[in-house]
Every structure is written in structure tokens, then in C-alpha cells.
Amino acid sequence: MKIQEKYILRCIELGKNGLGTTAPNPMVGCVITAGERIIGEGFTSPYGGPHAEVNAIHSVSHPELLKEATLYVSLEPCAHHGKTPPCTDLIIGSGIPRVVIGIKDPHSKVAGKGIAKLKAAGVEVVCPVLERECREHHKRFLTFMEKKRPYVILKWAESADGFIAPEKELREGEPEPFWISDRYSRQLVHQWRTEEQAILVGTTTAVEDNPRLTPRHWAGKAPLRVVVDRQLKIPQEYHLYDGTAPTVFLTETNQLPEPREGIHYEKIDFSGNLALQVCERLHELEVQSVIVEGGRKTLCSFIKAGFWDEARIFTGRFPLKNGLKSPEIEGKEVSRTKIGGDLLRILEND
């Protein structure tokens, strides 16, 4: 492995520390070396804070070393003013003579401008390095920028004999989730919720399960709750109206309830392509990633439209014998893992 590849891999490793906090900014990692040693490291702060390059440069205890240093970064440094000043200005001002970049930034405000600005200032620039690995790391940001939609993760749990939900007769009492997966899998799902920007559920699942869609069993930020509710059938005393997380209802009705803090309504055309409209609306809201939790009709609408990138499917230990069949999906299986008593398969849309 070449030394520049080694340090770009370290950038990717550092960048993962920003998962769930940097969006809509990408989760970038940065390493600064002088000679054969690392003198500074950083990753993107939560949204609104300094970028990876700024944090790495400010971490250097002997700034005079920057004039002989190489800066490695997983994504092209920005050259425009946003919530923070351009990273290229700080790099140039610090006297760093060489910059190694994983991949170019497709954002219209960057898109090669950062590289051009560095070169114009006399900085040696190497790009790309480990392009495939950097694209995988930045897949949420790149999907949002290049495909104009969020990175879509489908998630469901199915019984050992392929059912996603039981017959209604098996449900007792007040609406609540019917658990197919075990507590270890459920905790992992709560971790996932802190890592993505939004989580989506359909009307039937919301009415039957009364879900919270928050990460109660993992520390982290709650995702935006997105609810597909054509006629606003979900009772307002349900958890989705409790204000514990910002919530968007996608509906077609004009009869909207009284305004509530944290609750927002967006109109879509339910006679059209549902998955397409959801993706378009989430893109407008600058949502870069979404977990689609169900139910079957909602999941199948994304599968049929081809608007999915990853499917995370838990298979429980026990059969249901009857009920609602799991969605049918084809994709490339990239992993198969035991989580407690469950099997977790992850598919990619190839």
C-alpha cells in the first residue's frame, strides 16, 4: 500500500466520527503529516461548526511544521463561504505545500474550484486517491448531490417463514409494535436511527403499531420523522404527534389540524409515483439519508420504483405461519451477521 493510500484510509476512519451529526455537510476526515509522522488530525464538526481541514490544522501543536507538511483529506476542500470560511483559504494561508485528496466534491459551489484555487496558489495537488473507498464513505452525500435524492435504506424484520407482520387477531390491546426481532437487534436499529437524517413510516404501520421512531436505546440525535398519511388518519394522541422529534406528515388533504410545535405538513400527489415524490420532497428539505421502516406497501413502493440503495433485513428465530408476507427484493448481498438470535442480511441495489 502506498503511503498516500494509508493516510486517505485514516481520513475515512476519522470521518466516520461525524456520522449522524454533520449533515447536510459531508463527514470528511483530514490528516496532516510532516516527514514520516502525523502532526494533526480532524473530522467535520456537527453542522455549522468547523470543517475537517480546519480542525486538523488547528490541532497541530507546532504550526511552523505546516510549511513542510502534506494535508490528506477524503473530499475536495471547499472554496466558498458558507456557514464557515473556505477551507482552501486556511490551507493556503498556513503555507501547506502539498494536498492529497480522495475525491472531488460534486457540489456546484465546489466541483473542482477548491483544487483550482489550491493549484493557483502554488500548492501541489494529488487527486483522486482510493476513489472507490472514498465514494463508499461519502455515499450519502454523493447520492444526494448526484442523484438529487436521499440515500435510501430499507429496513424490516421478518419471521423465520417470511412474514413481516402477524394476523390482526394476534394483536391484543392498545396499538403497539409486534416484535419479530430480539432486543439486541432493536438496540442496533436505534443506533442506526442516530446515524441517518430521517426515518419514514406509512399509515397502516403507524396506526397499528403507534411507533415513536426515536433512538431511546442509543445515545444520539433523533432523526426527522416522516409519515406518509394520505388522509391524516393517524390519531393525534399517538406518539408521532408528541413533539419529541421534528415530524413531517406527507398528505393530500386540505383539512389540516391545528398547528403544533415540531409538526409540519407537506402535500404530495398520491395518484403519482409515491417513492419518487417522497425522495423529491426530502431532497428539497436537504435530507441526505432516510431509513424506510415500513409497512409493506411503503417498502414495496420504493422497491418497485428502484429508489433504494441498501436493504437491512432481520430474520427472527420463530415462524408466524400466517400474516403479511415480507416484501420481495433482489439485490447484492454484502453481509450476513448474527445479531443475538436473529440473522441480519444487508443487500445493495446493484
TrEMBL record:
Gene3D superfamilies: Cytidine Deaminase, domain 2, Dihydrofolate Reductase, subunit A. The active site is at 53 (proton donor). Its EC number is 3.5.4.26, 1.1.1.193. Zn(2+) binds at residues 51, 78, 87. SUPFAM superfamilies: Cytidine deaminase-like, Dihydrofolate reductase-like. It comes from the Bacteria. One of its GO terms (biological process) is riboflavin biosynthetic process. Keywords: Hydrolase, Metal-binding, Multifunctional enzyme, NADP, Oxidoreductase, Riboflavin biosynthesis, Zinc. Residues 2-126 form the CMP/dCMP-type deaminase domain. In the N-terminal section; belongs to the cytidine and deoxycytidylate deaminase family. In the C-terminal section; belongs to the HTP reductase family. Pathway: Cofactor biosynthesis; riboflavin biosynthesis; 5-amino-6-(D-ribitylamino)uracil from GTP: step 2/4; Cofactor biosynthesis; riboflavin biosynthesis; 5-amino-6-(D-ribitylamino)uracil from GTP: step 3/4. Binds 1 zinc ion. It comes from Muriicola jejuensis. NADP(+) binds at residues 157, 179, 205, 209, 295-301. This is Riboflavin biosynthesis protein RibD. One of its GO terms (molecular function) is diaminohydroxyphosphoribosylaminopyrimidine deaminase activity. Substrate binds at residues 193, 213, 216, 293. The gene is ribD. It catalyses: 2,5-diamino-6-hydroxy-4-(5-phosphoribosylamino)-pyrimidine + H2O + H(+) = 5-amino-6-(5-phospho-D-ribosylamino)uracil + NH4(+); 5-amino-6-(5-phospho-D-ribitylamino)uracil + NADP(+) = 5-amino-6-(5-phospho-D-ribosylamino)uracil + NADPH + H(+).
